Protein backbone atom coordinates (compact mmCIF):
# COMPACT_ATOMS: atom_id res chain seq x y z
CA UNK A 1 0.00 0.00 0.00
CA UNK A 2 1.40 3.37 -1.01
CA UNK A 3 0.96 5.96 1.73
CA UNK A 4 2.72 8.72 -0.19
CA UNK A 5 -0.62 9.76 -1.65
CA UNK A 6 -2.26 12.33 0.67
CA UNK A 7 -5.65 10.81 -0.15
CA UNK A 8 -4.64 7.54 1.55
CA UNK A 9 -2.99 9.36 4.45
CA UNK A 10 -3.91 8.51 8.04
CA UNK A 11 -4.72 12.20 8.59
CA UNK A 12 -7.73 11.84 6.28
CA UNK A 13 -9.23 9.29 8.66
CA UNK A 14 -8.80 11.23 11.91
CA UNK A 15 -9.02 14.76 13.20
CA UNK A 16 -6.05 16.15 11.27
CA UNK A 17 -5.22 19.16 13.40
CA UNK A 18 -5.56 17.36 16.71
CA UNK A 19 -3.43 14.43 15.61
CA UNK A 20 -0.72 16.60 14.07
CA UNK A 21 -0.52 19.05 16.98
CA UNK A 22 -0.79 16.27 19.52
CA UNK A 23 2.13 14.46 17.94
CA UNK A 24 4.25 17.61 17.74
CA UNK A 25 3.57 18.53 21.37
CA UNK A 26 3.82 14.92 22.60
CA UNK A 27 0.33 14.97 24.10
CA UNK A 28 -1.04 11.93 22.24
CA UNK A 29 -1.70 8.71 24.10
CA UNK A 30 1.03 6.07 23.70
CA UNK A 31 -0.84 3.83 21.25
CA UNK A 32 -1.84 6.69 18.92
CA UNK A 33 1.67 8.11 19.05
CA UNK A 34 3.19 4.71 18.09
CA UNK A 35 0.69 4.32 15.23
CA UNK A 36 1.46 7.81 13.92
CA UNK A 37 5.23 7.23 14.22
CA UNK A 38 4.90 4.03 12.14
CA UNK A 39 2.84 5.97 9.61
CA UNK A 40 5.50 8.71 9.34
CA UNK A 41 8.04 6.17 8.11
CA UNK A 42 6.06 5.64 4.92
CA UNK A 43 4.20 8.95 4.45
CA UNK A 44 6.16 11.85 3.04
CA UNK A 45 3.08 14.10 3.22
CA UNK A 46 2.81 13.72 7.00
CA UNK A 47 6.58 14.15 7.47
CA UNK A 48 6.33 17.46 5.57
CA UNK A 49 3.43 18.57 7.79
CA UNK A 50 5.40 17.69 10.93
CA UNK A 51 8.40 19.62 9.63
CA UNK A 52 6.26 22.70 8.84
CA UNK A 53 4.61 22.56 12.26
CA UNK A 54 8.02 22.34 13.93
CA UNK A 55 9.13 25.44 11.98
CA UNK A 56 6.03 27.32 13.16
CA UNK A 57 6.66 26.26 16.76
CA UNK A 58 10.32 27.36 16.54
CA UNK A 59 9.36 30.71 15.02
CA UNK A 60 6.83 31.35 17.76
CA UNK A 61 9.40 30.42 20.40
CA UNK A 62 11.91 32.88 18.93
CA UNK A 63 9.40 35.72 18.58
CA UNK A 64 9.67 38.46 21.15
CA UNK A 65 6.74 40.74 21.88
CA UNK A 66 7.60 44.41 21.54
CA UNK A 67 8.14 46.34 24.74
CA UNK A 68 5.19 48.41 25.86
CA UNK A 69 5.65 52.00 26.86
CA UNK A 70 5.41 52.80 30.56
CA UNK A 71 2.14 54.73 30.02
CA UNK A 72 0.49 52.17 27.70
CA UNK A 73 -2.36 51.39 30.12
CA UNK A 74 -3.09 55.08 30.71
CA UNK A 75 -3.25 55.77 26.94
CA UNK A 76 -5.41 52.72 26.33
CA UNK A 77 -7.98 53.63 28.99
CA UNK A 78 -8.02 57.26 27.83
CA UNK A 79 -8.78 56.13 24.30
CA UNK A 80 -11.56 53.83 25.52
CA UNK A 81 -13.12 56.70 27.50
CA UNK A 82 -12.93 59.06 24.52
CA UNK A 83 -14.58 56.46 22.25
CA UNK A 84 -17.40 55.98 24.76
CA UNK A 85 -17.89 59.73 25.23
CA UNK A 86 -17.86 60.68 21.54
CA UNK A 87 -21.25 61.00 19.81
CA UNK A 88 -22.10 58.06 17.63
CA UNK A 89 -23.38 58.26 14.08
CA UNK A 90 -27.04 57.34 13.56
CA UNK A 91 -26.16 53.96 12.11
CA UNK A 92 -23.90 53.18 15.07
CA UNK A 93 -26.74 53.98 17.46
CA UNK A 94 -29.10 51.66 15.60
CA UNK A 95 -26.57 48.88 15.27
CA UNK A 96 -24.86 49.23 18.61
CA UNK A 97 -22.48 46.59 19.90
CA UNK A 98 -24.97 45.79 22.64
CA UNK A 99 -27.37 44.54 19.98
CA UNK A 100 -24.75 42.21 18.56
CA UNK A 101 -23.38 41.11 21.92
CA UNK A 102 -26.38 38.86 22.57
CA UNK A 103 -25.88 35.24 21.70
CA UNK A 104 -28.91 35.34 19.40
CA UNK A 105 -27.82 38.35 17.33
CA UNK A 106 -30.19 39.16 14.47
CA UNK A 107 -32.33 36.01 14.69
CA UNK A 108 -35.15 37.29 16.96
CA UNK A 109 -35.39 40.66 15.20
CA UNK A 110 -35.46 39.01 11.79
CA UNK A 111 -38.16 36.55 12.83
CA UNK A 112 -40.31 39.32 14.32
CA UNK A 113 -39.88 41.48 11.21
CA UNK A 114 -40.89 38.64 8.88
CA UNK A 115 -43.90 37.74 11.02
CA UNK A 116 -44.99 41.40 11.06
CA UNK A 117 -44.68 41.67 7.27
CA UNK A 118 -46.69 38.48 6.80
CA UNK A 119 -49.40 39.74 9.16
CA UNK A 120 -49.63 43.11 7.40
CA UNK A 121 -49.88 41.45 3.99
CA UNK A 122 -52.56 39.06 5.25
CA UNK A 123 -54.63 41.84 6.82
CA UNK A 124 -54.33 44.41 4.04
CA UNK A 125 -54.82 42.22 1.00
CA UNK A 126 -58.28 42.47 -0.52
CA UNK A 127 -60.15 39.25 -1.22
CA UNK A 128 -60.29 38.25 -4.85
CA UNK A 129 -63.86 39.10 -5.94
CA UNK A 130 -63.68 36.87 -9.02
CA UNK A 131 -63.05 33.84 -6.82
CA UNK A 132 -65.99 34.76 -4.58
CA UNK A 133 -68.33 35.12 -7.59
CA UNK A 134 -67.11 31.85 -9.04
CA UNK A 135 -67.66 30.08 -5.71
CA UNK A 136 -71.16 31.57 -5.52
CA UNK A 137 -71.97 30.27 -9.04
CA UNK A 138 -70.67 26.83 -8.10
CA UNK A 139 -72.78 26.76 -4.95
CA UNK A 140 -75.91 27.80 -6.85
CA UNK A 141 -75.37 25.16 -9.54
CA UNK A 142 -74.90 22.40 -6.97
CA UNK A 143 -78.00 23.54 -5.04
CA UNK A 144 -80.10 23.42 -8.23
CA UNK A 145 -78.88 19.89 -8.95
CA UNK A 146 -79.76 18.82 -5.41
CA UNK A 147 -83.28 20.27 -5.73
CA UNK A 148 -83.77 18.48 -9.05
CA UNK A 149 -82.61 15.18 -7.55
CA UNK A 150 -84.89 15.66 -4.55
CA UNK A 151 -87.87 16.32 -6.88
CA UNK A 152 -87.04 13.22 -8.90
CA UNK A 153 -86.94 11.18 -5.72
CA UNK A 154 -90.30 12.60 -4.57
CA UNK A 155 -91.86 11.83 -7.95
CA UNK A 156 -90.49 8.29 -7.81
CA UNK A 157 -91.97 7.78 -4.36
CA UNK A 158 -95.32 9.26 -5.46
CA UNK A 159 -95.40 7.05 -8.51
CA UNK A 160 -94.75 3.99 -6.38
CA UNK A 161 -97.50 5.00 -4.00
CA UNK A 162 -99.99 5.89 -6.72
CA UNK A 163 -99.20 2.79 -8.78
CA UNK A 164 -101.16 0.86 -6.26
CA UNK A 165 -104.15 3.26 -6.59
CA UNK A 166 -104.00 4.98 -9.97
CA UNK A 167 -102.22 5.07 -13.35
CA UNK A 168 -98.68 6.53 -13.83
CA UNK A 169 -98.63 10.38 -13.84
CA UNK A 170 -98.08 12.34 -17.06
CA UNK A 171 -94.40 13.36 -17.67
CA UNK A 172 -95.50 16.79 -18.92
CA UNK A 173 -97.13 17.61 -15.59
CA UNK A 174 -93.96 16.51 -13.78
CA UNK A 175 -91.86 18.88 -15.91
CA UNK A 176 -94.28 21.72 -15.16
CA UNK A 177 -93.90 21.10 -11.44
CA UNK A 178 -90.10 21.31 -11.76
CA UNK A 179 -90.25 24.60 -13.58
CA UNK A 180 -92.59 26.13 -11.05
CA UNK A 181 -90.09 25.54 -8.28
Number of helical regions: 9
Strand content: under 5%
Instruction: Report the principal-axis shape.
Output: elongated
Percent of residues in helical segments? over 70%
Overall average residue pLDDT:
75
Largest sheet: none
**What series of H and E elements makes up the topology?**
HHHHHHHHH
Using DSSP, what is the number of strands? 0
**Whole-Å distance between the termini?**
94 Å
Indicate the radius of gyration in whole angstroms.
Answer: 44 Å
Question: Low-confidence runs (pLDDT<50, min 5 residues)?
Answer: 1-5
Derived from helix and strand composition plus strand pairing, the structural class reads mainly alpha
Describe this structure in words.
With 181 residues, the protein is mainly α. Among the domains are: 57 residues, no CATH class; 52 residues. Helix content is 72%, strand content 0%. The chain contains nine helices and no strands. Helix 1 crosses helix 3. The N and C termini lie far apart (94 Å). The N terminus is likely disordered.
Topology:
Layout: H1 16-24, H2 30-42, H3 44-62, H4 72-85, H5 90-94, H6 97-101, H7 107-124, H8 129-165, H9 171-180
Helix pairs in contact: 1-3
Short synopsis of the structure:
This protein has 181 residues and is mainly alpha-helical. The protein has helices spanning 16-24, 30-42, 44-62, 72-85, 90-94, 97-101, 107-124, 129-165, 171-180.
